[in-house]
Fold this sequence. Notes:
There is one protein chain. The chain is mainly alpha-helical. The protein has 21 helices and no strands. The protein binds phenylalanine (PHE). Phenylalanine (PHE) binds near residues 25, 247, 347 and 398.
Amino acid sequence: xxxxxxxxxxxxxxxxxxxxxxxxxxxxxxxxxxxxxxxxxxxxxxxxxxxxxxxxxxxxxxxxxxxxxxxxxxxxxxxxxxxxxxxxxxxxxxxxxxxxxxxxxxxxxxxxxxxxxxxxxxxxxxxxxxxxxxxxxxxxxxxxxxxxxxxxxxxxxxxxxxxxxxxxxxxxxxxxxxxxxxxxxxxxxxxxxxxxxxxxxxxxxxxxxxxxxxxxxxxxxxxxxxxxxxxxxxxxxxxxxxxxxxxxxxxxxxxxxxxxxxxxxxxxxxxxxxxxxxxxxxxxxxxxxxxxxxxxxxxxxxxxxxxxxxxxxxxxxxxxxxxxxxxxxxxxxxxxxxxxxxxxxxxxxxxxxxxxxxxxxxxxxxxxxxxxxxxxxxxxxxxxxxxxxxxxxxxxxxxxxxxxxxxxxxxxxxxxxxxxxxxxxxxxxxxxxxxxxxxxxxxxxxxxxxxxxxxxxxxxxxxxxxxxxxxxxxxxxxxxxxxxxxxxxxxxxxxxxxxxxxxxxxxx
Length: 508
Ligand code: PHE
C-alpha cells in the first residue's frame, strides 16, 4: 500500500501527540516512580537520562527512520529492507498485540474503579475489595505464597470485568477506526486530559501535609547506587518499556508521516516528554504517599508499592482520607484510563497496519478481526486467576519480547543495511543532524545492551522459579505465547515477502 495524503497524519502535532500518547502510559505513573525510589532516587534519574540518550532516543530515531524512510508497518518495512526479515516485524507486532490483551484488562479494572470512586465502594479495606470482590481471588494466601496449582483452576470470568473489557475494545477500535486520521483527532484529548489531571494531582498533592516527606524519599540521591549494575539494568529496562519501542508501533506511526518530516527533532520531543511525564508523575505519587505515611505515622517505604497494588489498593486507601475523595478518585482513574488508551490503541494499530498490508484486508475487517481476537484472548484476565497469568505474560512477552526485538532491529539496520545510508536518509530533512556516533550506537550499543538485558531477565526469572507448577505456568502463559508469536511471525513473514515480491517496484 503506497501511502498517499489520505493516509497521512492530519498535522505534525497530531503525529507528535500520538507518539507521546503511545509512550506515556501506566509505566509512567505506576512503574517509574517506584523504580526510581527503589534504585537510589536522584541517582536513578541520572542513570535513566543516560539510558534515554544512549539507547532510547537512538532507537526511537531508528524506528521512525524505518517507518518513514522505508515505509509501511513493521512487517512490511522490515521485509523491504530484506525479504528475510519480515518476520521480525511480525514478531514485534504480535508481541504488541498480546500485550494489548492484558493492557485492556487493566483498563477494564480502571473503568470499574472509576465507577466505584463515586461511592468509595472499596470501604475501609481496599485490599480485600480489590483482590476478592473485584478480581474474585478466593484465597488471599495466593497473593503471598503464589497461586500454586490453583493457577490452573480458571473458573468463570467476572461479569463486571468482561463488560469493562468489551467497552475498552470498542473504545480502542473506534480510536483507530480510520487509522492515522482518527488517531490524530483522538490524541488531542487522550494526551491532554491525563496531563491536566496530572498537573492538578501534583499541585493538590504538594499542598497536603507531609507531602515533602514523600518527595524526599523519591528524589534523595544515593550516588553510590550508580555502582550497582542492577540499577543500570532497571534504568535501561524502564527506558525501553516507556518509549513503546520494540512493538512496531513507532514504525507504523512514522509510516504515516509525510516525506519531508524532521525525524530527529520528533524523536527528541517525544523521548523527553515521556521522561518528563514520568518524572512529574513521581511527584503526584510521592506527595500523596508522603502525606498518607505521615498521617499513619509510618515511613514512606512502608506504604509504597508499584503496579496494580499502587493504583487499586494504596491509592484508594489514601483517597478515603482525603477531602473531596470521590472527585479525586474519579480524576485519578480517568487519568489512568486516558493514559493507557493511547498506548493500547497504538499497539493495536501497529498490528492492524501489518495485517492490512499483507492480506490486503479492508481496515474495517482488520479492525474487527483484531478486536475479536483481543477480546477473546483477554477473557482469561477477567477470571479469578487472571492477575497471575497477567504477571507471567507481562514478564515474558513485554520484557523478553521487547529486548529481543530491540536487538534484532538494531542488528538488521546495523549489520545488514548500511547504517550510514539510514543516517543520511534521516538527516535529509532533520534540523539537528545525526553524527556518525549514531551508526555505532545502532551497530554496537543497542544490540549489546538489549542482549545483556535479555539474558539477565531470563536468568532472574529462572532463579525466581521455585516450583514445578510455576515452571509449567510460565511455560504455558509466557514461553508458549512467545514461541507462538515467533512461529506465526515467521509464517506471516513469508506471506509478506511474497506480497512484496509480487509488487516489487509496484505499489506495496
Ligand atoms: N509505554 C507505555 C507505558 O509506559 C505502554 C507500553 C509499555 C506499551 C510496554 C507496550 C509495552 O506504559
